[in-house]
Amino acid sequence: xxxxxxxxxxxxxxxxxxAQEEIPLGEEEIPEIAVAVEVEAEKEKPxxxxxxxLEKIESMVNLRSVPDVLKRLPGTxxxxxxxxxxxxxxxxxxxxxxxxxxxxxxxxxxxGRPYMLNMMPLTAIExxxxxxxPAPPQYPGSTIGGLVLxxxxxxxxxxxxxxxxTIGSYNxxxxxxxxxxxxxxxxxxxxxxxxxxxxxxxxxxxxxTEASLKLNFSPDEKSKLTIVGSSLNGVLWGVMxxxxxxxxxxxxxxxxxxxxxxSITYKRQVSDKSDYFIRIVPFAFSGQIxxxxxxxxxxxxxxxxxxxxxxxxxxxxxxxxxxxxWTYGAGFQRDVLESTPTLDVTFMGKIPPDKWKKNDLTxxxxxxxxxxLAQGKNAYTLAVRxxxxxxxxxxxxxxxxxxxxxxxxxxxxxxxxxxxxxxxxHELYGEGIFKGNTDLRPETGWTYQLxxxxxxxxxxxxxxxxxxxxxxxxxxxxxxTKNQYMNIGxxxxxxxxxxxxxxxxxGLWWANYTYLDAWDLNKDRPLVIVFRxxxxxxxxxxxxxxxxxxxxNFDLELFAYGPRRTDLDTPRQEDWFKWxxxxxxxxxxxxTVPTEVGGYAIFNxxxxxxxxxxxxxxxxxxxxxxKDYQDLLFYPAxxxxxxLSFKKLF
Length: 650
Hints:
single chain; mainly beta; Maltoporin, Chain A; five-stranded mixed β-sheet; 5 helices; globular
C-alpha cells in the first residue's frame, strides 16, 4: 500500500468522525437518500450506482453523445481517441475497452472496443447509470472497467413530439426529431438523430444517422413485453493525430453500412412470490475502413468487417418472505467476426472468398444471488457467478455487499467482488500487425469499495467512496512480445471519490473530487493504459445551474485535472507531423516528449432561454477560453466549440 493514499484515507475518515450532527429534513427536501432499505431495491442495486437522470443531462454543456455525460462524474475521463476520433471513456484509470455499455441489455460496445459508444446520441436516452466498482452478478461480459447502463424514454412518460436543430463550430449540424405516446399498458417512443461536422483537424468528419425505437406492451395484467431497437449508418473520417501512435502515421475513414441492435424482454409475474424475465439481444454490424498513410498517400488500403452477436438471458426471482429475495440467472452469448487482412483498394467490391476469415467466441454463465434484511433494516447480498468462454477459460466470481443506515439521514455500503474480462476476438485471433493468442487467461480484478452517503441540512447531500482494485493477467502486446497478445501485466487501482450536491431556491451547485492512484506493478510506475499517459492523480469538477429571471437559465462547468505521467522514464525526441497551412501538406517535426505533462482546466458555459410555452433557445460554449488541452496528451481535441440550438415541442 502506498503511504500517501492511506494518510489521505485516515484524514477523511477522521473528518467524518468529527462532522456536525445530522439534522433531520422535511419530507419535501431534496436530494433524497433511501435510508429505509428495501429488499427489492437492494436486489436490483446491491452496489453503488451513479445515476444521471434526464434533468441533469439537460443542464450539461454541448453534449454530443454518451461519453460527454460520463466525463462529469468523479473518477472518469473522456478522450478524443486515435484513429476514429471517438469519444472514449476511461474509468478509474482503466483501459476504455474494459468498459461495457448496455442499452437496456443490448451491447453497444462489441468486439471489446468502445468506438460504438461514440455513436449513441442522447435524443432517446432517459437516464444513465454507471457502476464503477464491484459489479452485481447479473451483468455478463466485461466489468473490470465499469458498466454504463442506458435506459430509453418511453411514450407514457414522454408523450408528444418535438424537434431540435443545432448549428455550431466546425460546421456542426445536428437534427433531432422524436415522438412518443400511449399509456401504461401500451406505449411507444421513436427518435431520429442526424449529426454532421467537419473536425478540428484535417480529414476529420462525421455524418451519422441514428434511429431508435422503444415499444411497451402488456398482454395481460401480469406480463410485459419491451422491444428496444437502434439502427445507425454513416461515415466517420478519423482525425490525423499529432502524436507518434501508430508509428505509420495514418488516418482512417469508416463507412458504416449499418449497426443494428435490438433488446426484446418479456417479464411475467408468476405469483405474489415469484417472477421472471427472458431477454433476447441480436446485434449486427458491417462496414469498412480505408487507411491513408501520410508517408504513402498514393497507396491506400482498406479492410471490411462483418460482426454479429446473439445473446440470451434468463432470470428468476423468488420471495419466500418479505425480507428475502433469491435470484437465479443463466445466459448464452455468441460473437462472430468476419474480416480480411488489409487489402489494396482495387479489391473494393470484389473481395475473393479466400481473403475472408471467420472467428467466433461463445460465453455461458450462471449465477445465484440471495438478498435479505437482517433485523429489519440492514441489507446483505451474497452471490456467486460462473462464466465459461470458448476460446478461453472458466472463472468463478463471488460477490458480497452489505448496506445499512447510520442514523436518520445517512447510510453506508461495503461491497467486494471479482470483476472480470475475457479476451475479445481481436486479442484471440489478431488484428493488423498484432498477433492473436487463443490461450489468453481472463483479466480479473478483486475490487473492494466502501460508500458513505449523508444528507446534510439545507437540501444538500455528500457522498464519499473509497475503493481498491488489484488487476491480474492484464492483456497487452508490444515489441517485447513480438506484437503478440499476452498476459503481461499486474496493476493496482485505488482512490477516493467525494461528491457534494446542494439545491438552492435559485438552482443547483454540484462538485466532485477524485484522488486516483493507478500503479503498474510490473514496471513500478504510474499505470499507462491508453493515449501514452497515465490518468491524473487529482481531478476536480464542479458546476452550477442558475434559474434566472424572465425564463433564463445559466449553466457553468469547470473541469480541472492535475499533472500526469507519460509512458517515458526519460525525455525522448520523436518524429511527429504537423499540418502546414501554406502548402496544405503534413510536414515532419522533431518533438521532445517529456516524462510528465502539466495539468489544465476547462470552462464550459450554457445559456438557456424559454421563448414560449413549448420552445427553447440554447447557446453552448465548450472550452470557453480555447485551451489546447488534449494536445498535451499527444492527441488533438476541439478548441472553443460554440453551438446554438432551438428546441420545439408539439
